[in-house]
Amino acid sequence: MDARLFLSQRARDFVSDSGGAVHEDLLIGHIFGSTRTPELWRSLFYAVMRETPELRVRGDREWVLAEAAPQIDIAVPDFVALDVETTGLRPASHRVIEIGLIRYQAGEATDKLSMLFDPERKLPAYITKLTGIRDADLRGQDRFADHADRVQEFLGDALIVGHNVSFDVNFVNAELRRAGRMPLVNDRVDTMALAMRYLPDLRRASLDKVASALGLAPRRLHRAQGDAELAARAALVLFRIAAEQGDGSLDQLKATSRMPEARPRDGIGRGRALLDTDFLKTIPSKPGVYLMVDANRRVIYVGKAKDLRDRVGSYYSQPLGYTRKMDGLLESIASIDVRVVGSELEALMLESQLIKRYQPRYNKVMRSHEQYPYIRVDLSSPWPRISLAPEWKNDGARYFGPYRNRGASKQVVELLNTHFQLRTCTRSFKTARSYGSPCLKLSLNQCLGP
């Protein structure tokens, strides 16, 4: 039997034997025999489930038998998917270099519009690296103003759908104003906000992460047309999930995805206002840790810095900021807390502790206590032992670190053990029984143990 068909059968049998409903993580663990890291298996899991029409997923990530699932009549709204590529983050001073527009009617793409524009300036290197668009690709292209009417005509009064759609609409509106046109006032639905609402296990709401969580193939390159299409496909799946939770009307979708800039207390931050020049002047140019907090007082990101002012400022004006805007981090910030420490090493240690404590959703799945190991020297017996430890403990041993490079730390431990012929076994040597038989290293005169 084909492996995928075999896994599909395992899924059907498990759901059926479990009463007709199983949470996704539990189902992944049963199918692949691993319950510890479901995220590693999720993309393959969705590939299997695409060939398992007998099962359906509900909005709460429970997989149920299709015949037992209620049939929900979903009225998919017509919309235009929008995405732009730009020369930076600021609509007032940066420019649109590419636009992708796709019209959807009854869930099907019916028309497309994709154009490159000459920004009349040199592209930053990080934009070229991110998008693959080069200065030569834009040289000789029309300016956005030359096609402003065409863009407005394509959009009309349609519902606009996009991922972090306010970013794209703000840039289009800035270009329209420069061209002497009225800005867009269209209703809009943001797939990033929908994903944060209906995919509660999602740690970061970047477009690729959302697509993978929904079983969609991620993009190969960050380009406007491809991003618009992927955002639209994600929206169609999220519309169904919303409907299954009773939020299927257009008004509910718009309300869920709304990101009001004037009222940060409603749950969305004012990150761009925080990152202006005056605010940055209040941050010291010293080593430390910064905590980004949303309007609900949740820590959503923790970072360390050798120079706090430079690092925090980079989120707005440098390539790091351009990358982070795709996650929605800037839009979610309500406040930034900085903690000054004495050295970069102290900042690293504090960052590790805070990530463990708060588990911020915008940090990568960073096992800080494992990434930065300590060298542990155990002096509790006459035969000392040196080893790597994931974290410092108050156990009487001496700890050195943490160290950035786990591989180099491991080599140091091995070198010390070899040079000083230290024992590497874990015997306690506290009782006669714990001594056991001599090990091979002792027999080879590679250990000075008892």
Shape: globular
CATH topology of the largest domain: Nucleotidyltransferase, domain 5
The major sheet is characterized as: 5 strands, mixed
Going across the biggest sheet, name each strand in turn.
Answer: 6-5-4-7-8
Number of strands: 14
CATH homology group of the largest domain = Ribonuclease H-like superfamily/Ribonuclease H
Which spans have pLDDT < 50 for at least 5 consecutive residues? Answer: 259-270, 365-370
Q: What share of residues is helical?
A: 40-55%
Write down the CATH class of the largest domain.
Answer: Alpha Beta
Protein described:
With 450 residues, the protein is α+β, with helices and mostly antiparallel strands. It folds into four domains: 66 residues, Arc Repressor Mutant, subunit A, CATH 1.10.10; 179 residues, Ribonuclease H-like superfamily/Ribonuclease H (Nucleotidyltransferase, domain 5, 2-Layer Sandwich), CATH 3.30.420; 96 residues, GIY-YIG endonuclease (3-Layer(aba) Sandwich); 70 residues, no CATH class. The chain is 41% helix and 17% strand. It contains 21 helices and 14 strands. The strands form four sheets. A five-stranded mixed beta sheet has the order 6-5-4-7-8, with helices on both faces. Strands 1-3-2 form a three-stranded antiparallel beta sheet. β2 and β3 form a beta hairpin. α1 crosses α2, α2 crosses α3 and α8 packs parallel to α10. The chain starts with a helix and ends in a 7-residue tail after the last helix. 34% of the residues are buried. About 4% of the residues have low confidence.
